[in-house]
Design a protein that fits this description.
The protein has 305 residues and is of the alpha/beta class. The chain has two domains: 26-135, no CATH class; 189-300, no CATH class. It is built from twelve helices and nine strands. It has a four-stranded mixed beta sheet with strand order 6-7-8-9. A hairpin with a 5-residue loop joins strand 6 (227-228) and strand 7. The longest helix has 24 residues, at 248-271. It holds the Pfam family DUF6310. The chain crosses the membrane at residues 106-123.
Length: 305
């Protein structure tokens, strides 16, 4: 009887251990989303760019780093709980504001926003992307490069006992769901590590647009881009070649190769509703691309190698 009780207890404990996700697996993401949701109720002068950049940090650190980006003309802080007196004496209104905002729970009346708060663009995009990933995980998995497509997943769920159609009875398989869902999933920007290891190129991609995901490329519509610009729907292809040092033949070959890549990227960006910009280091490089196609949007970044 005692041995049965011990076995039952061990089984119960092992089930608990395997059914509960580890804090490390879910903590950072849940903290990021909670911070974004909390910041969405506040007015920001930078479109929420700082919040998105710092959202993975603890809330107090985010507030400290992004406090100056708040629209202070539309927000008032009141120490209704009486716990920010020291901050008020030491740093004036800024001390009170920081003290009130970093509190685990905002006391009623402590933060008053004047007018209607429209969720900042960058924060809204980040929350929409999170919602999409959780609404259609199968499709978003495909956009992240997984090998199982939605149609293959549907086939795996089909009972094996169901006979396969043969001969003239065969009909093309129907898509697993509405086409707009698949398109939305593939158009979701998915950050991936910078390719290559070209540090000057990657630094330019992060700093010049500037990049919404520093240190990352982004997949949109199955195509890799160097950067997604902060606060707007604009994708970037960055070129840092020392184009001016090439001879005429090499320049022509380089432009021909680049133009094929650029055409693919521009078409993918347009299909997903994004703008597309090519950043080059020199005016000569820009002029060469525009001679190939005057409709290209080319910007001189001045980035050095």
């Amino acid at each position: 009887m005692r041995s049965r009780a011990c076995i039952g207890l061990l089984l119960f404990l092992s089930a608990c251990a395997t059914s509960t996700p580890t804090p490390s697996a879910r903590g950072t993401r849940s903290q990021r989303i909670a911070n974004l949701q909390r910041a969405a109720a506040l007015p920001w002068t930078d479109g929420g760019q700082c919040v998105v950049r710092e959202a993975s940090q603890p809330w107090p650190a985010l507030v400290e780093r992004c406090y100056q980006a708040l629209d202070h003309d539309r927000i008032e802080f009141h120490d209704t709980a009486g716990r920010c007196a020291v901050a008020s004496a030491g740093a004036g209104a800024m001390g009170v504001g920081l003290c009130v905002l970093v509190a685990p729970e905002i006391v009623l009346g402590a933060v008053i926003v004047l007018g209607v708060v429209v969720v900042a663009v960058a924060i809204k995009e980040e929350l929409n992307a999170y919602e999409l990933r959780h609404s259609y995980p199968e499709e978003t998995g495909a956009s992240r490069g997984t090998k199982v497509s939605s149609r293959e997943a549907e086939a795996q769920r089909k009972p094996k006992s169901e006979p396969e159609p043969t001969g003239q009875d065969w009909q093309p398989p129907a898509p697993p769901g509405p086409l707009d869902r698949t398109r939305r999933a593939s158009c979701e920007p998915v950050p991936v590590p910078h390719a290559g290891g070209d540090d000057p190129h990657n630094a330019c991609a992060d700093e010049f647009p500037p990049n919404r995901y520093p240190g990352m490329d982004v997949l949109v519509g199955g195509v890799r881009f160097d950067a997604l610009q902060v606060g707007v729907r604009v994708l970037w292809e960055i070129k840092t070649h020392r184009f001016d040092t090439y001879n005429e033949f090499v320049r022509e070959q380089e432009i021909a190769t680049e133009y094929k890549q650029i055409t693919t990227e521009r078409d993918s960006a347009a299909a997903c509703g994004y703008g597309f910009v090519i950043g080059v280091s020199t005016q000569a490089h820009k002029d060469a691309l525009l001679r190939r196609n005057r409709t290209l949007n080319v910007v001189v970044t001045g980035c050095k190698r």
